[in-house]
Design goal:
282 residues; alpha/beta; D-Maltodextrin-Binding Protein, domain 2; five-stranded mixed beta sheet; three-stranded parallel beta sheet; 9 helices
Length: 282
Amino acid sequence: MKRTLTIALAALTAIGTAGLVGLSTASVSNAAAACKAGALATVKTGVITVGTDDPAYGPWFDSNTPSNGKGFESAIAYAVAKQLGYPAAKVVWVKAPFNTVIQPGKKSFDFDINEVSITPERKKAVDFSSGYYDVAQALIATKTSKIAGAKTLSDLANAKIGAAVGTTSYTTITKTIKPKKAPAVFDNNDIAKQSLVNGQIDGLVVDLPTAFYITAAELKNGIIVGQFAPKSGAEQFGLVLSKANPITGCVTTAVNALRANGSLKSIAAKWLSNTAGAPVLK
């Protein structure tokens, strides 16, 4: 009995999930074997396939080239893969539109990385790793926008505000800002930015690092109006896997290891702008 318990606890530590409690010794041993470095049950034998959207925006990626290892999420993906026993040469990238990633069904990737926030609703359709980044949502505008000087949520009541479809940015508009005008919905941030420039919307909600990047590098006369405090706990980005994926526990263990050894923090410091200074809109 003591030996069985020891084996079970060791396997539980190896894959980082409480889901093994109550399993037989054989089942626990099989689960531990599933996390063998470089030999996971991946969609393509011998390599790990990572999905992300196209275009892949900064500061998460660089030059719309996820495979170059530049940008926060590209660097995170390679760090996770290495932790799982897959060097850069064994990482394959595939295109995965955001809306398809969070829908149920078979996936063309082992995990997807694309600023996908972990939510209870999404967890019904897909698996998530533990969070690799705590994020806030923010509102950007141009200096000539009528909401450029907004200080409170009530200042946004009559604004036309947009966000990318299916995102927590859109949810921030409907659940936090609650403007009188229906939100504008866009297929991607490129289209949304152009709508902002054209004056079709007064402001655009994106995650805070993206807000800093867009206003500094892509949007003429762009400003960050403010950020929004999460209503319940920190919003986190997680790696997305197919539902009940046998490697979900292994991927979570890899993310947790990168957090514990300081890698997540150091990668964020290298690739993401300092988000201090954006006022909180209440």
